[in-house]
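Figure S7 source data.
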Amino acid sequence: MATIFSTATGGPLPSTMSDQQLSIRAIFEHAMKSHPRKQIVSRDGPEILRFTYAEFGKRVAKLANALRTLGVRPGDRVASFAWNGHRHLELYYAVPMIGAVLHTVNIRLFPDQAAFVLDHAGDRVVFYDGSLTKAIKAAAALDPGAGRTFVQMGASSESFEGALDYETLLAPEADTYDWPDVDERSAAILCYTSATTGDPKGVLFSHRSTFIHALASGLADALGITERDRVLPIVPMFHVNAWGTPFMCLMIGADFIMPMERLDPAGVIEMCDSERVTFSAGVPTVWMAVRDMLRAQNRSLPLLKRIVIGGSAMPSSLMDDLNALGIEAIHAWGMTEMSPIGTVSRDISELDGDPDKQRRERYKQGRFSPIVQYRIVDESGNEVAADGVARGELLVRGYAVAKEYYNNPSATETAFEPDGWFHTGDVVTMDEYGYIEIVDRVKDFIKSGGEWISSVEVENILMGHPGLKEACVFGIPHPKWQERPVATVVVREGHEPDEDAIRAWLGDKLAKWQTPDRVIFVDTIPRTGVGKFLKRDLRERYKALFAEKDA
Ligand code: AMP
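C-alpha cells for the predicted adenosine monophosphate complex:
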C-alpha cells in the first residue's frame, strides 16, 4: 500500500482551497443558474414536450417533495423502469439530490430477471412508463409480498391496480426544495450489468464519481459536447446512465432531447430532423438501421455532425458509411463498472501528416480518458508491449471505476483485485500512439487447433459484405479442432448471397483456419437487453453442429 501523506502525519502543507463536495446537486444548481433558458425536449406519446431548464428544475423540486410525501428517505432505493423521457430525467436528479439512490432497471429484462434486480436492490418505490405497464406487472407478480409502491408515468391502455399516477402526485407539491448536503462518496445511482453470464451484478455510482465522469467525458478529446449542441441520446438511460450524457449535457448547458420508445430508424431520423439534433450516441445496430434508411431515401441529416458509437465494436464499414453521409462517427469503449466511458477514438496531432494511419486509428476503440488508470497484462500478470500486436487482458482502476459489486462478494472476488484493479474481461492491444483495439472478450475467443480466433475481427469483416446486414461469430466444440468458428448472418433486403459465396469472399481476407466453417442464415440474432449479441444462446443452440456432422 502506497504511503498517503497527510497533515496529520507531518506531511505537506495544507492548501488554501475550499473543499466543495462533488455532487449531482452541484451540476443541477449550475445548470439552473447559468443556463436557465436551455431546453429539455421529450416525446410524450404523439406529442413533443418542451421545458426550459428552469421549468425542468421546478418539476424536479416537485418530484423531490412528492418522494418525501411517499416516505422515501436518504439511502432508500427508488427504481425507474422507463425509456429516455423527461420524467425519467426528473428522477435522475430528484432521487439522488434527496440522498436516495435511483436504480435504473433495464426494461428489456425478462420478468424473473427484473424481479431479481428489484429484490436485490431492495427498491421501495418503482416509477414506470405507462407503455411498460405489462412488463412491470409481470415482474411485480413474481414477488407480490414485496410491499413496493408503483408510480405510473404517462398513459397506459393497461391498468395496474394500486399504482399511483406521476402527474397527480406532483400536482399539489411545492416547486422549491431545500436540498440537503449529501456526502460526495454516498451512492447516487445503481445500475446492474447486462449479464451475458450469470445474474446481473450491481454497480453503485457515487455523487463524486458521477460528477468526475461527466467532467472528464465532456472534454474536447472525449465526447466534446458544447453548449451549442442539441443532444439526442439513443443509448437508453437504463444502460449506464445513457453513458453519462444526462449529467454532461446539463453541466455544459447543451439542449437535451429524448426519443422515448421511438428508437426505430424512421423515429430517430424524424427527431434528428425536426429537433435539429447535432450530436447523438448509441450502439452500432441503431446506426446501421439509420444508415440503411438514409441511403434508401437518398438523403442526409446535414445538422447531425457527430455520433459516438460504442457498447459493442463499430464495424469499420459503418464508420466509413456514416462519414460518407457527412456524419463523424466516433468510436468509444466502456463498461458499466467504469461509469462507463473508458476510451474514445479522436485524432491526435502526431498523426496529422499521415491521414491513412489516422483513419485506421479511428477504427479502433481509442485512447484512455484521463480518469482511468490501465494495465494490459499477459497470463502471468506482466504488462505487454504497446506495439499494436501483443495482446493482454485489460485491467482498470480510477476515479469513476467500481471497486466492488453491490452486495455480491463472490462476483467481487472474481473480478476485482484487493487493491482495486478491475479485470475487464476484454483482451486488447495497444499501439505506440496509445490507441487500444478490443480483440475479443476473454470468453468469446475461439480456440481452434491451438490458435486463437478473434470473433470480433471476423464479424467486422463480415459486416463489410454488401449483402449482409449483421453477423455474429462464435465457437462451437469440434471433435478434431477443439472449437471451430460459426457465423450467423442476417441478409440485407434485396440480396441473396449463398453460403459458399460468402465463405469464398471471406477467404480473400482471412486465413483458411480463421474462416467460419459454417455460415448460417437467420432472421434475427439474439441480443441482450442493451443490444449486444447473446453468444451464450447461440453456442447453446448450435452446440451439436459439428458433433452431428462427424457422427
Ligand atoms: P456494458 O457493461 O454492458 O456496457 O458492457 C461492457 C462490454 O461491452 C465491454 O467489456 C466490451 O466487451 C463491450 N464493449 C463496449 N464498447 C465496445 C466497443 N466499442 N468495442 C467492442 N466492445 C465493446
